[in-house]
Amino acid sequence: MNSILLPSRGRVTISEVASAAGVSKASVSRYIGGDRQLLAEATAERIAQTIERLGFRPNQMARGLKRGRTRLIGMLVADILNPYSVAVMHGVETACQRHGYTLVVCNTNRDDEQECRHLAALQSYNVEGLIVNTLGHHAGELKDLQNRLPLVLVDRQMEGFEADLVGLDNTQAVRQAIDHLQQRGYRDLLLVSEPLDGTSSRQERAQAFRTQIAANPSLKGRLLETNGDFTAKLKTFLTEPGPGPKAVFAANGMAALTSTASLRELGCRLFEDIGLIALDDLDWYPLVGNGGITALAQPTEAIGITALEYLLARLNGSRSAAQRMAFPAELRIRGSTQPRIS
Amino acid sequence: MNSILLPSRGRVTISEVASAAGVSKASVSRYIGGDRQLLAEATAERIAQTIERLGFRPNQMARGLKRGRTRLIGMLVADILNPYSVAVMHGVETACQRHGYTLVVCNTNRDDEQECRHLAALQSYNVEGLIVNTLGHHAGELKDLQNRLPLVLVDRQMEGFEADLVGLDNTQAVRQAIDHLQQRGYRDLLLVSEPLDGTSSRQERAQAFRTQIAANPSLKGRLLETNGDFTAKLKTFLTEPGPGPKAVFAANGMAALTSTASLRELGCRLFEDIGLIALDDLDWYPLVGNGGITALAQPTEAIGITALEYLLARLNGSRSAAQRMAFPAELRIRGSTQPRIS
DNA sequence: GCGTTGGTTGAAACCGGTTTCAGGAGATCA
DNA sequence: TGATCTCCTGAAACCGGTTTCAACCAACGC
């Protein structure tokens, strides 16, 4: 028993606890590792008291080293300023907490290089699994990573990359939007989307919109991206002749913000002059225009929780084939699509 | 030289690199640790190639163990669904990235117990420093923690707890708001705040409001918290007689949301019927009412960056006394406080 | 030719835990 | 009484790195 114990960097270590309790490191380790049935009642009690008295907290890094379990989950978020991402992250965090994991979040700022760097960093911290909201440009790295760790995609998938995916049922959501608009008397629709840069969810929504409009002869539909001089492009749509009342379908929260701002700028009143429905339901939707913006809410909390549960399932090895969960959106009708009385 | 090398858990280790390159672990360690001037040119080159060939990534956990440097920074956020917190976090992350740190974020969900648990967790992961947006109820734990790690508070301070603090100059911001409202002809002011539960920034804003109203005989001022039946309380304010035009001052983004919603509910038009100014500047402020909501924007990015820089200064030991940085707010005038023509 | 010096290198201890393995103390059985 | 079987425990190896320390080699000065 060595009597000289240097408290390293101020923190109590397992060796100090061991010698203070008059037992071996192994016993203390067994105690904190939950192998308590291996210990005699009296020993366990003595260790418990010593730990309490010294305020010992095991060093998770050291534990992870030998054990392979760091209890860390990594999450890669494309844009942390996007409320959708934060909401999903909140769900993931809730689930992590529930299962005793800690979440490490990295924000790529929609930057390819940062995505790469952060993937490497998370790996080097021995996260046990990854939840990825990817830009979709690093199939190689991701495939490589998937061989090492369980990995679940959120919202966005990737061409030629087999992995669990949790997100929205985009086709169904677009159908709900179009159906609702049509039912409310709109005939000339404009899908507003952030730039179609390869982000799969945006592509899917755009594609579903095109397909469904093409299949519906009574409707006309166009697609506008929010880059360039969006207001000017929007104005063109507003002045163009069409088959009937016009409505905008914003493909996500950002598009809703841009659309609403541009419509205001053009002096165009929501509902009175034009219909509006938006994917995502942000907390300010009820405050805008005449009675708020009609929304298709994503179950973000559920998406986050499910993503983590898929990950845990893989960690436990209880799954093999890539699985996909597409949640339905929930329609929340507000003033921007009130029944047209015309 | 041991020829049997089991690739542990699929990842390449320093020993494998060492034996593949025909050098010792020590040399490889020196190479990745940046002590390259200790190595002969040829050796360094050989190691570089081997690392590249094998795709070796050093395990940060293992490095941190002996070295004491994990290059991890912990951040405790009171409410991740609050855009203010996310914006600050974005600043912190930017700065972390710039200095080669990785950020671990924990959300306490405004829960005391979770705050405690997360503080313990972050500590057990050997973060090198902490940025804390605390609830303000755990002076004991925090003091204890401060003895072990550098720690910087964001937005919220704590009674009897000396630490670096980065946030808004609340007194000055309240002065800007009151001055602006008075200048625009408003005389009967209502400060709307989330519940004064001890959160220091809320208290400071409320206190500054009371003080400044008391010192200004031409103004009347009341304070309302957003709990209970807020709309009813707001209605009372609106119908009460006062010394002149009424205006609401929302003490943060949440209060702005609640206030705007209740005003709508009461059929009260912004600007025409009542003035509104809000602390924080959220992206939807321009879209509401007649010309948007006037805002006092916080420099959230700068707050986050500064918080991390203070932390790094402490990590380098180049600071002793607790320091405080109070940023000014920036007034952004919009429709909700247009000049009163009356 | 020999002691010094400085630049490189590897063996081994170490960080703070976990895990294997062997051994000692009782209890049970023949 | 001795053999066997549990149950509990500690020594030591190990995880993947870092760091100390001593040794080696070539060049240098005298």
TrEMBL record, chains A, B:
The keyword Secreted does not apply. InterPro entries: HTH_LacI, Lambda_DNA-bd_dom_sf, Peripla_BP/Lac1_sug-bd_dom, Peripla_BP_I. Pfam families: LacI (PF00356), Peripla_BP_1 (PF00532). The keyword Cytoplasm does not apply. Residues 12-67 form the HTH lacI-type domain. Keywords: DNA-binding, Transcription, Transcription regulation. GO terms for molecular function: DNA-binding transcription factor activity; transcription cis-regulatory region binding. CDD domains: HTH_LacI, PBP1_RegR_EndR_KdgR-like. This is LacI family kdg operon repressor. It comes from Azomonas macrocytogenes (Azotobacter macrocytogenes).
